[in-house]
Amino acid sequence: MLWRDLRAWQIYGANTDVGKTIISTILCKALARRAPKNGLLYLKPVSTGPDSEADNKHIARHASGVVAKCLKQYSQPLSPHLAAKIDDPNHVITTRLGKLSNNDRLLVQQVKEALNLHHNKGGRYAVVETAGGVLSPAPSGSVQADTYRPLRLPVVLVGDSKLGGIATTISAFESLHLRGYDVQAVMLFDIPRWGNAQYLNDFFLQHDVPTFGVPEPPEKHQHERQDRDQLAAYYDEVSSSTSISSAVQLLHHKHLQHVNKVTSMPAHAESIVWHPFRQYGLPQNVIAIDSAYGDYFEAYNQETDSLLNTSEEMSTNLQPLKPASPAKPLLNTLFDASASWWTQGLGHGNPALALTAAHAAGRYGHVMFANAVHEPAIDLCYNLLETLKNPRLSKVFFTDNGSTGMEVAVKMALRATAQRYGWSNKDAETGILGLKGSYHGDTIGVMNCSESSPFNEKVDWYKPWGYWLSPPEIKLVKGQWQVQLPVDDSMPRETGPVTLFPSLKAIFNFDSRHDDAEFYADYITRTLQHLTQHQKRRFGALILEPMIMGAGGMIVVDPLFQRMLIKTIRENPSIISPQAAALESSNSADWSGLPIIADEVFTGLYRLGRPGSSSFWNSGSSLGTEIDVAPDISAHAKLLTGGLLPLALTTASDSIFRTFVSDSKADALLHGHSYTAHAIGCSVANKSLSTLRDLASTSGSVLALSEPKSSNASAGGAWDDYRSSWLSPQDRDIFSFFSPETLNKISKHPLVDSCFALGTVLALTLHSSTSGYNSTAAASLQARLLTTLDEQDRGVHSRVLGDVIYFMTSLETNEGEVRALEGTILRALDEESAAKN
Amino acid sequence: MLWRDLRAWQIYGANTDVGKTIISTILCKALARRAPKNGLLYLKPVSTGPDSEADNKHIARHASGVVAKCLKQYSQPLSPHLAAKIDDPNHVITTRLGKLSNNDRLLVQQVKEALNLHHNKGGRYAVVETAGGVLSPAPSGSVQADTYRPLRLPVVLVGDSKLGGIATTISAFESLHLRGYDVQAVMLFDIPRWGNAQYLNDFFLQHDVPTFGVPEPPEKHQHERQDRDQLAAYYDEVSSSTSISSAVQLLHHKHLQHVNKVTSMPAHAESIVWHPFRQYGLPQNVIAIDSAYGDYFEAYNQETDSLLNTSEEMSTNLQPLKPASPAKPLLNTLFDASASWWTQGLGHGNPALALTAAHAAGRYGHVMFANAVHEPAIDLCYNLLETLKNPRLSKVFFTDNGSTGMEVAVKMALRATAQRYGWSNKDAETGILGLKGSYHGDTIGVMNCSESSPFNEKVDWYKPWGYWLSPPEIKLVKGQWQVQLPVDDSMPRETGPVTLFPSLKAIFNFDSRHDDAEFYADYITRTLQHLTQHQKRRFGALILEPMIMGAGGMIVVDPLFQRMLIKTIRENPSIISPQAAALESSNSADWSGLPIIADEVFTGLYRLGRPGSSSFWNSGSSLGTEIDVAPDISAHAKLLTGGLLPLALTTASDSIFRTFVSDSKADALLHGHSYTAHAIGCSVANKSLSTLRDLASTSGSVLALSEPKSSNASAGGAWDDYRSSWLSPQDRDIFSFFSPETLNKISKHPLVDSCFALGTVLALTLHSSTSGYNSTAAASLQARLLTTLDEQDRGVHSRVLGDVIYFMTSLETNEGEVRALEGTILRALDEESAAKN
Fold first, then answer.
1. Cross-chain CB nearest to A177 (options B358, B367, B372)
2. Which end of chain A lies in a sparser environment, N or C, as judged by fewer CB atoms within 10 Å?
3. Of B350, B394, B678, which has the smallest distance from its Cβ to A645's Cβ?
4. CB B361 within 8 A of CB A178
5. Alpha-carbon distance A54 to A44, whole Å?
6. Name one GO biological process term (chains A, B) (predicted).
7. Distance (Å, rounded) from C-alpha A38 to C-alpha A26?
8. Is the CB of residue A67 less than 8 Å from the CB of residue A40?
9. Which residue of A has its CA nearest to B658?
10. How confident is the model at residue A488 (pLDDT cuts 50, 70, 90)?
11. First CA to last CA across chain B, in angstroms?
12. Which residues of B touch A162 (CB under 8 A)?
């Protein structure tokens, strides 16, 4: 909600009865002098109490030329949630922090439409007054600062001038601040005896928020007529005072500052930021994100801002502005369809996560972790292992991101094999066994765990150390599910390179795929024998991204192939080292053959609908991981903090851990970053994991991880609709937020080669003459999606990987939003098709 | 403030006049029934208004057997800061968020002493009632939730039961929560018409905080006697109601839960956490940190907790407890003398940083950064370059920690040299030129930038690629400053391996050290010529940690040597590559010979008292860096966020940046982590850098970075006292928080070989038969410091690196705290000495 030519503010009060409407009236009168007739809209979205006493009537009475409206007037002078319930006994009240209901969305949409309408009529100012205090409940039951947050209008906070009002005003400010609002000014009655205005003036300077004292209104006169007259005189005098002029000037200034900041960001970025993965020799449009909420960015796109630098619009002149053809809003609402590089889980601007982060910062800041420990870190270790339900794991190591988490995983595994097989790190090199298309991060150590690709080939110290097998891939092609053997013919098969399946679920029915399993095992055995016995190569770890290799281009791997790779190595350790068999332990949880590392950074923690993505290797339907295919080491990041800030965990089995135990310090795992296990990250991760677990839980069936819904079991799980659109009630663990119907349609689209969906991920491979990362096939569709708008004027911000374009939701995206996104994708595909013909 | 046998709570009110004292009385009466006589202390630290109406008198009147005290009664019924000013016109009021004044510290100390005294007398309960609302000013002017934060007593929040009270109660909760308090219960009058108790009960369940409704007290009776009687009856009835019993039971339960959590942390850590750098085969004491504030941890140390598992103390029995000999407090206050692994800058639990983090979380969450940008990230780029004042730098790249920041630096430099000198990454290896003892992080790529050491030698993929010169070191030995040439005789000198200097400052007077400069240049030239011409070795970067190599053992390098290394390579590029001279550009900001990388992760951003540590290479006294020794690339982390959470920046000159510009995507710097430039980190870093700049600014002289103090220039800079203890007013940029007198004393101590101090760092090398990381010489002193207490019963938590023990303050540590720390260190050294003899 930002325009060059319409300035809108939201008035919040530090408490009920602090003079919000009086100060709004003063502000409206002062602004109206600078506006053309009807150029100022006063909007009271929700009002309670008798209609005759409504605030909009007060404004209309005292500020002429102002359009004063109320969207909803409830009859009882109570908190809006109670007033709404009295007027409509069927009204539903919910209180979940930061989780907006349909009632909230509707209210926000109505305010948005009122402001847009006003803008389209040439309006120059808008003042939106809230009801009660900052966190008073909206009719829905949500606290109203949450309800209105998607608009993020700049705020004028009306302070509390009574005894105790210093405390309530600062707390109200803090509640707004932690919800991402910009409080641009504090205004309150100046009552010298209590000293609030003076104290708050000093205090808020630290936050760069100016405070304006306003003279108290006259005592109520006993006669209505005189009362109205003395109030009118008060309004006339105060609204033209120098103090209020300064306030208005300041608000203008902050508006301009915001517009300047937003519109200059792309140029500033160009001059000083070195962006990741950006080739500065190629043209590129940088999008400036002003804020984000839920699944959506509020973003400024230089390319679509036609009015850049028109001087009239940017005028600092406080004289009345001429009505003119209105400028477009500066900010576009865009669905964050890369889930902000695969991180987003619980929505942008989530106040529960913001508060959790703030609590940890307030309780600890960061406290050192070497030989020290704190509650959020310990809780997180238990929380993660409980979530993963991998029977092999017992230890948790902390780092900062997926790449460092995988560096630690590699250090763990290489030491284990070197120790068991008596290899020294001084002689022959030990490599990694993996799959073609894998990718584990951008630090050089883990870059070396992947085959050469455009991501790493120009890095000077990059050296691929290992061997990478070509995996069979899962695709939906023209409505037909299939497993495709690699095109390089390394794995030829009599019946041809493609096997057809009646459904996605059928591919996961390993029991019915006995022949495939044997075929894979045979191929794997022959390949490994050739490498280790013929070529004398050494391997130190098997690293797999379960199900999907993301950075490699959203390659969906047949999980049966990954399963057979693990089982073949574990059951025939001598395939890795001739001495292996004799060294094996009888403990079934010990690693065998090679330590198996699951890189679940992208795929794990519910991204694909399951707590741990290694569980897709199960033959049964348990969401924990069967011991014979469970990894010995796994790495977790991204969704771990719900999409808020960096943190990574590497887990290990006891058999891996014991490798590092000796009486020499130098044998320890000497790896640690300064902010290892930072309390904010751990606290937010605990909150995220428990929220994700609640979201994933189902009703009516007993799954390994389902937990009883708090007192409301019959309401069903949050993802029940997604599950039921894919599956029968018995197998609810292979499903997507995207519907099978849409997926089917997309697969048959003429621009699309193949597609896939699982959990929150949808990936499309487009027709292209050059495939892979260097292809530009998807770029044009990506650009089109930015301006293909849904019914609420929202576009889509997506990311591409060469010829692949993908879409991802958060774990809290509701069905309406997903279906709207699907509609936009289908429409953009059609338009793209039409444009090409 | 946690004991097994004393349970203490602090009562905060959501606003003034919400019934805090009435509910405190009820709670006191209910608790007193469970306590021995005089076993409950009611404490009102600050009270305003007539003495006869004081809350402690009300309590004494209505709750018999309670010890009711007030520490300070002001005569006027106003906000305490105004009341204090009226009673004492010289009283000073300050309003800086989270920055406690001496008045605050004194008040906290008094409360602490009162509670300890009560505990020592066998007290079992304490109720500490605050004044006004949660954020009402304390007498000092600080908001009281900040003032009392060092105690972090568990909180009972008295909610506001009036219309609007839902908002004020939740905001008050949020203000406490973001300051790290544990709100254990909310209690408020239940007035069904407003529905507050019901709403808040639902709402706070999300925060796991139970809410208790309390019947309203009777209307005030006109006769005093009857009023007192009806109030007494009300108290009797309510305090024995089942609802209040539940509340008391819950508070007991939460106390036990806290004690259990704290005392079980070491064992839980042992079972599930894999700690960084820990050798599990050696005994190790894990310290559990319950919270932290300013420079201090509140920590539980299993080894000093004598009463572990005594059943009487842990009883859940609500019957009166027998007075017994009191148990020691469970938590020890420890100075965080490693600055939590070198990160801490602005104090633990800093509410300004917590609020900044929360605002960014609320406005953005994390938003993706590839081809996108947001305000905090752009501001931070400008902010950093403005801070560093390095004339070469123009671009900023984001990663997550020092190690990844250095990976990026290395990728930048190697590409630049490979491109200019026509080297391919496919043939001969290009190494790093550096110093012995350097260390740049734990990811494998940057591990390879350092010589073999206990940190890396067991890492399987570690391969030292480069050559490391032995640097001359600065030491204070027995009161004598000296520069010592390397012991390995690689740099022999006629006058012997040690040069003496009259002061630390004299070492930095490069103009007077012409002979040393020539000697260094000659040695460097010969060495490099031998390597490149004779041995045909290739180097891709010179990497230096300015002044101090931290992880390598706090090795203090003669900055003149680093200066000459840079100048020699820059002025004689052909020493690196024969073709170099012809390829040099005439632009003096272009890199020459080798890209120079400054690893300022530990030393930069004011850790050593200067904004950028490369400026120690200057011959002049400017705090910016001279262009001829300014690095082409620098890495920054740790203090960047003031000590709150991970973020790293790598800067580069335009000449480095241009290396990556082409028309091929694969030539771009393909490095990026999921949370690259996360908004929380950037926002907190902006806040930290501006706060650090304010702290560093001086008054009375014009330094490059000094800024006018806001309206108060004559007050002087925060570090003026530190500076003046070291220097004459003209050269105020080589100084330490630690005093020269203490340093001198330490250097002469029989246990100490040598020592050094600069900025916030003090390092001692102890006598030891084995030197380096594998030495255990410092471990015994380290253990002793945990229990060597200062006047306020605070010990010291320090870290050692083999035979080196070091101490570090934050950048906000005041002189009193530093001097107290110095006293403790000297005392511990003496006791250690005595114990050895």
1. B358
2. C
3. B678
4. yes
5. 9
6. biotin biosynthetic process
7. 17
8. yes
9. A280
10. confident
11. 37
12. 16
Q: Which amino acid would we find at residue B780?
A: S
Q: Which of A185-194, A422-431, B175-184 has the lowest mean pLDDT?
A: A422-431
Phi, psi of B574 (to 5 degrees): -70, -15
CA separation for the pair A289, B820 (Å, rounded): 48
> Tokens 């799959």, residue?
A435
List of residues 6+ apart from B503 with CB closer than 8 A: B481
Looking at residue B708, its pLDDT comes to 37
Cα–Cα distance for residue pair B196/B200, rounded to 1 Å: 6
Please provide the distance, in angstroms rounded to a whole number, between the alpha carbons at the two ends of chain A. Answer: 37
d(CA A216, CA A235) in angstroms, rounded, equals 11
| Positive or negative torsion for Cα B689, B692, B694, B697 | negative
Residues B263 and B305: beta-carbon distance below 8 Å: yes
Three-state DSSP state, B544: strand
Q: What angle do CA A715, A721, A725 make, to 5 degrees?
A: 150
* Sign of the dihedral through C-alpha B348, B349, B350, B356: positive
Alpha-carbon distance of B292 to B269, in angstroms, equals 19
B chain contacts of residue A662, beta-carbon cutoff 8 Å:
279, 281
Closest in A133, A193, A274 to B395, CB measured: A274
What pLDDT, on a 0 to 100 scale, did the predictor assign at position A768?
Answer: 84
In Å, the largest CA–CA distance within chain B is 106
Predicted structure pTM score:
0.95
Find tokens 């201090």 and name the residue: B296
Phi (first) and psi of residue A761, to 5 degrees:
-105, 135
Only one residue has tokens 């993908």, namely: A806
Interval B397-440: pLDDT, tens: 999 999 999 999 999 999 999 999 998 866 668 999 999 999 99
Identify the residue among B1, B665, B690, B694 best suited for mutation to test binding to A, counting A beta carbons within 10 A and taking the highest.
B665
Q: Give dist(CA B308, CA B316) in Å, integer.
A: 16
Contact A180 B364 (CB under 8 A): yes
A561 phi, psi to nearest 5 deg? -65, -45
CB contact (8 A) between residue B652 and residue A348? no
Return the pLDDT at B306.
56
CB hemisphere CA count around A185 (13 angstroms):
25
Query: Considering only CA atoms, which of A106, A104, A119 is closest in space to residue A1?
Result: A119
All structural domains of chain A: 7-259 (3.40.50.300), 380-471+504-696 (3.40.640.10), 714-836 (3.90.1150.10)
Q: Does residue B322 surpass a pLDDT of 80?
A: no
Identify the pLDDT of residue B834: 93
Please, are residues A245 and A30 in contact by the beta-carbon 8 Å criterion? yes
- Do B553 and B773 contact (CB within 8 A), yes or no? yes
B474, B468 Cβ separation under 8 angstroms: no
Question: Reduced to 3 states, what is the DSSP secondary structure of residue A333?
Answer: strand
Burial (0-12, 13-18, 19+ Cβ within 10 Å), A264:
middle
The shortest C-alpha distance from B512 to chain A (Å) reads: 39
Chain B residues within an 8 Å CB radius of A665: 279, 282, 454, 773-774
Please give the Cα distance from A238 to A241 (Å, whole number). Answer: 5
| Strand runs labelled E in A533-605 | 539-544, 548-549, 555-556, 596-599
Strands lying side by side in the sheet with B794-797: A372-374, B287-293, B296-301, B332-336, B794-797
Task: Answer with the residue of higher pLDDT: B453 or A35.
Answer: A35
Instruction: Tell me whether residues B445 and A445 touch, CB distance under 8 A.
Output: yes
The predicted structure's pLDDT at residue A311: 42
Q: Is A239 helix (H, G, I), strand (E, B) or coil?
A: helix
Longest dimension (CA), chain A: 106
> What DSSP letter does each residue of B172-217 carry, written as one string?
HHHHHHTTT--EEEEEEE--TTTTHHHHHHHHHHTTT--EEEEPPP
